[in-house]
Design brief:
two-stranded antiparallel ribbon, TIM Barrel, about 35% helix, alpha/beta, binds S-adenosyl-L-homocysteine, about 350 residues, DNA polymerase, domain 1
Length: about 350
C-alpha cells in the first residue's frame, strides 16, 4: 500500500491500525503533500521507531528523474521519470503568462490506439497510482523550484481508463491539507469514453474537461481514433452537453490538424454543424508528426485560415501554442526514444 496514494481519512485509519495517535496522520500527510519529501526517512518529526514501522509496512512512491530536456526556445522542460518497478513515464513543465503548468501522464502506455499518437504504439503497460500521478508534480516542483498553478492530465494514457485513481488524484491535489490546488486549475483530457464522462459529470467537480475530437464525422473520426467505433459522435456530444449541464463548466475540444485529412473547408462546415450553438471552444493544434506514421502537420497559414473560417461561423477557436517541439514534446516520444535506446 502506497502512503502517498491515501486520502487524509484513509491515512488516519491506517495510522490508527498501527496504534499511533491520530495527529501522526496529519504530520505524515504534511510531509507527503506539502513538504513533498521523497522518503519516509526525511519525516524528521516522527520517531525513528515509527519511521521504521512505516517503511516495513508501506510503500512511499517516489519517482526518480531519469532524464530532463529543456527547450532552447520557450523554457519548456520535459521529464522522464522512473517508477519503482522500472517503468518510465513522461511529464512536461510549461511556463505561461498566467502561471506554470505541468502536464502529467495517467498510465504507463495506453490502449486507446489513436493513429497519430506515440504513447499508444506499444499498448497499455499499467495504470498509475494516485501517488505516482502526484509525484510527477511534486518532483517537478522540487527540481525547478517553481510554483505550479495548473495541472493538465494530457500526457501518456487515457485518464478515464484509470478512473478511480484519477478521482483520488484530483481530490488529493485539491485537499486543503495538501497542495490545495483549485479544481478550476485542473484539466482532464479524454478521447471520449462516454459512460465515464457521464460518471465524471455526476461527481460535480469544477475541473475542465477537454475532449479529443480530431474529426467532425463518425467516419473520419474512426479513421483516426478506434474509440469512435465504440461511441458515436452523437453520444460523445450528448455526454459533453451533460457534463456542462451538471457542472456549468464549458467543455473544450481538442483538434489536431492533419494535413489533407481533417483540415479542409469540408471539415470547417462539418465542425460548424457539430458545434454551433454549443457553449464550448475548440483548441487547434497542428499534429506533431511521429516517425512511425505518415501524418503531416497542417502548415501555419492554413491553421490560421481554418481558425478564421470557424470564427466567421461563430465558433470560439484558440490555437494551442506549440511548445517543446525540439524536445520530443509529443506524448510518448521521449519515453519511446529512451526505451529503444
Ligand atoms: N488520452 C487522453 C489524454 C492524453 S493525449 C486524450 O485522448 O485526450 C492528450 C492530447 O494530445 C489528446 O488530445 C491527443 O489526441 C493529443 N495528441 C496525441 N498525439 C498527438 C500528436 N502527435 N500531435 C498532436 N496531438 C496529439
Amino acid at each position: 500500500m502506497d502512503l502517498k496514494s491515501l486520502s487524509y481519512e484513509e491515512l488516519q485509519n491506517e495510522i490508527a491500525t498501527l496504534g499511533e495517535p491520530k495527529f501522526r496522520a496529519g504530520q505524515i500527510f504534511d510531509w507527503a503533500h506539502n513538504k513533498q519529501v521523497d522518503s519516509i526517512e526525511k519525516m524528521s518529526n516522527l520517531s525513528k521507531a515509527l519511521r521504521e514501522k512505516l517503511k516495513e509496512n508501506y510503500e512511499f512512491t517516489s519517482l526518480k528523474c531519469a532524464r530532463m530536456q529543456e527547450s532552447a526556445s520557450d523554457g519548456t522542460k520535459k521529464f522522464l521519470f522512473e517508477l519503482s518497478d522500472g517503468n518510465y513515464v513522461e511529464s512536461v513543465f510549461m511556463k505561461y503568462h498566467h502561471g506554470n503548468s505541468v502536464c502529467i501522464s495517467s498510465q504507463v502506455g495506453c490502449r486507446m490506439g489513436c493513429k497519430f499518437c506515440a504513447s499508444t504504439l506499444d499498448g497499455l503497460e499499467r495504470n498509475l497510482l494516485p501517488g505516482e500521478m502526484l509525484d510527477q508534480i511534486y518532483r517537478i516542483a522540487a527540481i525547478t523550484g517553481e510554483k505550479i498553478s495548473n495541472i493538465v492530465v494530457m500526457g501518456t494514457g487515457e485518464p478515464l481508463d484509470n478512473y478511480d485513481n484519477l478521482l483520488k488524484f484530483i481530490h488529493l491535489l485539491n485537499d486543503e491539507h495538501g497542495m490545495n490546488l483549485s479544481q478550476r486549475n485542473i484539466t482532464v483530457s479524454t478521447c471520449g469514453i462516454v459512460p465515464k464522462i457521464k460518471a465524471l459529470a455526476e461527481e460535480k467537480l469544477q475541473i475542465t474537461l477537454a475532449l479529443s475530437l480530431h474529426a467532425p464525422t463518425d467516419e473520419k473520426r474512426k479513421a483516426l481514433m478506434p474509440i469512435a467505433n465504440s461511441y458515436s459522435l452523437n453520444e460523445v456530444m450528448d455526454a459533453c452537453r451533460f457534463y456542462f449541464d451538471k457542472t456549468g463548466r464549458r467543455v473544450s475540444f481538442e483538434y489536431a490538424l492533419v494535413s489533407g485529412v481533417n483540415d479542409r473547408d469540408e471539415e470547417v462546415s462539418e465542425l460548424t454543424r457539430l458545434l454551433k450553438g454549443m457553449n464550448c471552444h475548440i483548441n487547434l493544434i497542428p499534429v506533431n508528426p511521429i516517425k512511425e506514421r505518415e501524418f503531416k502537420s497542417t502548415d501555419r497559414l492554413r491553421v490560421l485560415e481554418f481558425q478564421k473560417k470557424l470564427e466567421k461561423n461563430g465558433i470560439n477557436v484558440t490555437i494551442r501554442r506549440e511548445m517543446g517541439r525540439d524536445i520530443d514534446g509529443a506524448c510518448g516520444q521521449l519515453r519511446r526514444r529512451v526505451m529503444q535506446g
